[in-house]
Amino acid sequence: MSRRHANPTRRFVSGGSNPFGGILHPKSHVSPLLSIVLVLVGAILLIGLFYGGSGIFGGYKEAISKVEGDFTCTLEVQRAIPILKKAYGDSMHKVLHVGPDSCSVVSNLLKEEETEAWGVEPYDIEDADGSCKSLVHKGVVRVADIKFPLPYRAKSFSLVIVSDALDYLSPKYLNKTLPDLARVSSDGLVIFTGYPGRQRAKVAELSKFGRPAKMRSSSWWIRYFVQTSLEENEAAIKKFEQASSKKSYKPSCQVFHLNSYH
Ligand SMILES: *[C@@H]1O[C@H](CO)[C@@H](O)[C@H](O)[C@H]1NC(C)=O
């Protein structure tokens, strides 16, 4: 942008042997284009300021995180809602979602017909947007540390869906939290968790979660369920698989279906 930046290029071009001289010629073609881009970027930033960052910037941020592939199993839950509806049918009428960015899942679930939804957000929501703060204010989404018993009575929800949150818990806390999630559900518990070797959380976010995520393998989880007497929900697994193949849906996270306690 400054003159000093343009100089090396110009010298390069006037060297004569550069085969890309025509393309790289800075003065005639690149600069006007660059100015237009800069003006556009400036305009977008200004619009963002006017809209208080909630509307436009929310969508913009989401678009960026999708492009960068920085994506979470919470996003995967939202992609999977139509499949979950096929697999769980009426059991989707009263859903609790547990995990980071719960507001986004809850708002999406609330758009579905005949679905009531609540959320538990395990981490702070300082950077939450206005609509999320309003969900928290109404008590639809709660901020709660899931290492402690959830503030709900047994079988308060037909279905409990948890994403990402369990990857941050050591087995000691998993031993408490997972049975508690099964306790507050009546028709099942669905777990969305990352594949090992595919670190999803950005380094910057690690401090927020307290400890780095530990992605466990499918065999680790299955062994863990057996140890803690949690049963897999065979009927739901089958229906979920059928609905997935019908809609050519391939989850980017591991999905487990467990029975509630009876
Ligand atoms: C978790 O619970 C299982 C089954 O009750 C037990 O075998 C295991 O030692 C527990 N793990 C921890 C870290 O407490």
TrEMBL record:
The chain crosses the membrane at residues 33-52. GO terms for biological process: pectin metabolic process. GO terms for molecular function: methyltransferase activity. InterPro entries: CGR2/3, SAM-dependent_MTases_sf. Keywords: Membrane, Transmembrane, Transmembrane helix. It comes from the Eukaryota. This is Methyltransferase type 11 domain-containing protein. It comes from Nyssa sinensis. The lineage of its organism: Eukaryota, Viridiplantae, Streptophyta, Embryophyta, Tracheophyta.
